[in-house]
Specification:
The structure is a single chain. The chain is α+β, with helices and mostly antiparallel strands and 297 residues long. The protein contains 6 helices and 7 strands, in the order ααβααββαββαββ. The protein has a 5-stranded mixed β-sheet with strand order 2-4-5-7-6. A two-stranded antiparallel sheet has the order 1-3. Helix 5 packs antiparallel against helix 6 (264-272). The longest helix is centred in the N-terminal third of the chain and has 130 residues, at 2-131.
């Protein structure tokens, strides 16, 4: 009987233990399932978020591509515009060069024609002077002839040098001096020029040439006594530092010594040269000034 009771107790103990294990297993399984479900939910949440991140990235990439396309388009159009502009500038420069050469040729031909016409006028004046002149009007004809020859010399220099923006002042003024050689020899006058080499614009060169011509003629006409030694000197020095020329003309004539004179044409030519001349007649005639040269740029 006791043995039977023990068996029954053992059976119920085993049954109870088994039931407890079963309940524990079920609970453990439920916990595992819940944990698995939680993990699945988290993964699903992450998966749901991933498409959103991907869409944002794609949107940014598209914006970057559009911006890059705009930049590339801008540079392409800029490059094409630059090519067009350079080509246009090249065409304009070629036209300007052509017009410049054409103008140079026309101006050179103009100087040549003017020189020829002035030479013809000089010949006519010289012929008139040779055939029809009196002691009173001879000097006037010679004065006119000298001025025409001075201007003709300028145009001849411009034509021969092919340069219309500047002229070698020394060569030009020496030619002006040569125009007086026969006249000076006839009057027994010694003319001496001391001139530095300098390039000068044609307008100033012409006015200087006419001024020297007028000064020489005035010296011949008014300054010298027939029995005296007759000297005319021109000194022209170039000051490179200040870009100026120092001009000084003098004669040793005694007829105007200490007198007051007002050479109208000389003053007008000095005004054209934009200079302030200083006159002195204490020891003959003396005129000097500083001339600021224009820059040939």
């Amino acid at each position: 009987m006791i043995r039977y009771l023990i068996s029954i107790l053992l059976f119920f103990s085993v049954l109870l233990f088994t039931s407890a294990n079963t309940v524990f297993s079920v609970n453990a399984t439920n916990l595992s399932l819940k944990k698995h479900q939680t993990e699945i939910q988290q993964e699903n949440s992450i998966l749901k978020k991933k498409p959103s991140i991907s869409d944002k990235t794609i949107s940014e990439i598209k914006k970057s591509q559009i911006l890059l396309l705009i930049i590339i388009t801008f540079f392409v159009f800029g490059f094409l515009f630059l090519i067009y502009h350079l080509k246009k500038v090249k065409i304009i420069n070629q036209k300007l060069e052509h017009y410049s050469k054409e103008n140079q040729f026309l101006l050179s031909e103009t100087n040549h024609r003017v020189n020829n016409n002035l030479q013809l006028i000089s010949l006519l004046i010289a012929e008139t002077l040779r055939k029809k002149h009196t002691a009173e009007n001879k000097l006037d004809f010679e004065k006119l002839l000298s001025k025409v020859q001075t201007i003709a010399s300028l145009h001849r220099h411009l034509y021969l040098t092919k340069k219309n923006t500047e002229i070698n002042l020394k060569n030009y003024l020496l030619e002006v001096k040569n125009n007086f050689n026969d006249f000076a020899q006839e009057k027994n006058i010694n003319i001496s020029f001391d001139i530095d080499v300098v390039e000068i614009n044609p307008d100033d060169a012409m006015y200087l040439g006419l001024l020297i011509t007028e000064l020489i003629i005035n010296s011949v006409k008014h300054a010298f006594d027939e029995n005296q030694e007759k000297n005319i000197d021109l000194y022209l020095a170039f000051k490179e530092v200040t870009n100026e020329i120092n001009f000084e003309y003098s004669d040793n004539g005694i007829l105007l010594k200490g007198g007051k004179i007002n050479p109208v044409l000389v003053n007008q030519l000095c005004q054209q040269l934009a200079v302030n001349p200083k006159l002195n007649t204490e020891n003959g005639f003396n005129l000097k000034f500083l001339k600021k040269l224009k820059s040939n740029v």
